[in-house]
Amino acid sequence: MSLTKQDKHLHIGWIRTAILACVVAGLSIASFWYGVIIDKISWSIAGVGIITFFGMLAISSYHSLHQPNSTGTLRKAIAASMVSVYVVVLALLFSDNLPSLENEAAMALMNNFSYVIMTIIGFYFGSKGATEFLKIWKGEKNGQT
User: What is the largest CA-CA distance in the chain?
Assistant: First the structure.
């Protein structure tokens, strides 16, 4: 099977994107464990959020170079960083490494953070679905299928 020059360029772009994603994931995991080992949980949570945000921003921007129709770079970065921070907080919560969640205010904050994550995920997937629906609807309305 012979690939065209454009297909080879696209294939190399995906490989580089995957390598960049692995580096971001590795840095996030290292930040998480560093914060846990030195017993600075706030470093762990903040490190994962910052590394994931800027890493996903870089990955999405790099991917946009190879896919000109790719949009929503900032939306992807925000959604990924918020979800990764939420997963880290849940992991720390279930492993009893968050002693500050014993009071009511901290639990209320965690519950509100859960609502924020649900809203972000809902808008992320909802906006994509609405955009695709409008594209299809406009195509059918104009006589295109």
Answer: 63
